[in-house]
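Appendix B. Chain record.
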Amino acid sequence: MHQIDFYILHSISRHEKDYLACQLVDKAWHQGYRIYIQTESLMAAQRLDVMLWTLKDDSFLPHDIFPDVSSIAPIQIGYTEQICQGMNVLINMTSTVPSFFEQFQRIVEIIDDTSLAREAGRKRYRFFKEKGMRLKTHDIKR
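Structure tokens predicted for this chain:
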């Protein structure tokens, strides 16, 4: 059974949402997971790419922007519906459920504090609940 973690972020800052995603990537990668981050656009993927390079001064998170077919990095940032094989964790930075969600063991949904994001998050929550998936929420105050 898949586990879906909803992180309810009490901020409307895009930077805070991206930063939380990078922190979750860091944690998951250090636990041995391979992570795929789904974004809305190439620009959003590039923004996360820069943030992952600079997240910590004393560590490195091996990542690439997908689809780079030659890359074997355990962290991939994508922005298309193309499937990235061999990943365990999906961090969904979009407002919809990616069509390829079932290939992941764990899914992370980050919901920021805007009415549109909350409503889209509720729809995704109901979708996963109807599928019988294990749901967990985390309240994040910054």
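Further analysis of this model is presented in Appendix C.
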